[in-house]
Amino acid sequence: MSVPTSDAPVLKLSNVESAYGPIKAIRGVSLQVRRGEIATVLGSNGAGKTTILKTISGIIDPRKGSVEFKGENITALDPAHIVQQGLLHVPEGREVFPLLSVRDNLLMGAYTRKDRDGVARDMEMVFGYFPILRERATQDAGLLSGGQQQMLAISRALMANPDLILLDEPSLGLSPKLTKEIFEIVVRINRERGTTILLVEQNANMALNAADYGYVLENGRIVMEDTCAHLREKDDIKEFYLGMKEAGVRADRRWKKKKNWR
Ligand SMILES: Nc1ncnc2c1ncn2[C@@H]1O[C@H](COP(=O)(O)OP(=O)(O)OP(=O)(O)O)[C@@H](O)[C@H]1O
């Protein structure tokens, strides 16, 4: 089953600026995520990707601009209320509850829900996507491998039956094989369940293959946006993010070209 995307943005950032004390981490960031799509923000180390997600989920209050979710202004809401609205953040480094069992971690994801039948169905659904979690259901989450913890973190977010999942660098610290496996399942979840996803990644190759629409972030500013199909064909993206360097192009010329993006 493939769920079509709709043109109405489920998430809209307008001119957002966030800072840590005197350090402006993101500036003038405007982006939209449409219902049913996977959108991605690409950017190198320190570009501001995590800051964007923290600003959306209410961990950081922006200094300027607004965040709208399902048409409501959520800029001033605290993280717990934003979760209740159906916006779930899977942070970098997964952050499962290590001393709780895998099953209890999943139930924690569903703590705002009253529909017990729905919760049981969704538990089966995540076990279908990640069968290893069923095998380890009674074990402490802290005993899982890094990849399995990533699967659990994504599954815990799914247990909230969210309208939007923010996924921060799911490839971090994982082998290429495991990264590929997790990305394939994330795409399946999106296509089969219609879950809207905003993914931030340094692994541009994976992100551009998984996502429908992409934004490129450099030094806290969005310098390019397009469908991922188009982004994959752009020379700058090939050179700087996909590592497909043109033979014979000198480093200083590449740098000049990079600066021309702005
Ligand atoms: N708690 C903090 N205090 C001060 N500066 C911070 C803090 N967190 C991030 N920064 C700075 O803000 C900028 C953006 O960081 P951010 O973590 O959002 O980038 P990122 O693109 O997610 O990078 P990475 O891929 O390494 O996680 C960087 O210059 C970073 O050093």
UniProtKB/TrEMBL annotation:
It is an enzyme of class 3 (hydrolase). SMART domains: AAA. One of its GO terms (biological process) is L-amino acid transport. SUPFAM superfamilies: P-loop containing nucleoside triphosphate hydrolases. InterPro entries: AAA+_ATPase, ABC_branched_ATPase_LivF/BraG, ABC_transporter-like_ATP-bd, ABC_transporter-like_CS, BCAA_Transport_ATP-bd_LivF, P-loop_NTPase. CDD domains: ABC_TM1139_LivF_branched. Residues 11-244 form the ABC transporter domain. GO terms for molecular function: ATP binding; ATP hydrolysis activity; branched-chain amino acid transmembrane transporter activity. Its EC number is 3.6.1.3. Keywords: Amino-acid transport, ATP-binding, Cell membrane, Hydrolase, Membrane, Nucleotide-binding, Transport. It holds the Pfam family ABC_tran. PANTHER family: ABC TRANSPORTER SUBSTRATE-BINDING PROTEIN, HIGH-AFFINITY BRANCHED-CHAIN AMINO ACID TRANSPORT ATP-BINDING PROTEIN LIVF. Belongs to the ABC transporter superfamily. This is ABC transporter-like protein.
